Amino acid sequence: EKALYENPDSDLRTLWWDMVGKYQMLKRPSDRNKADWASKPHFTIAPVYYHNYMLGELFAAQIRKSIGKQTGTNFGDEMKAKVFKPGASLKWQKFVEQATGEPLSTKAFAEELK
Known about the structure:
The radius of gyration is 19 Å and the shape is elongated. α4 (50-68) crosses α7. The protein is built from 7 helices and no strands. The protein has helices spanning 2-6, 12-24, 41-44, 50-68, 75-84, 92-100, 107-113. The chain starts with a helix and ends with a helix. 59% of the residues lie in helices and 0% in strands.
């Protein structure tokens, strides 16, 4: 992804398909010569790097584990209190710890994969 930003005047079509082939193991159709990279909002109107998706998955697993420990409480109420109510009032590291009881880690995500 970084390579697409480094030299925006390069052949982004080829660069995009080279990366898609390498990381997603998809083959570029032989008759395809469109700006497929531009179909991703990440590159055009909403720059959100792919690693942010992984951070979101880590947090989601952690919040599911944390709220899953609660007995006799409503999941929606817990989400409102722990996730939605604080909003952007905390730096993200503190927010994660407050919402889940521990700093962001891969532990809960890995447990879900077992």
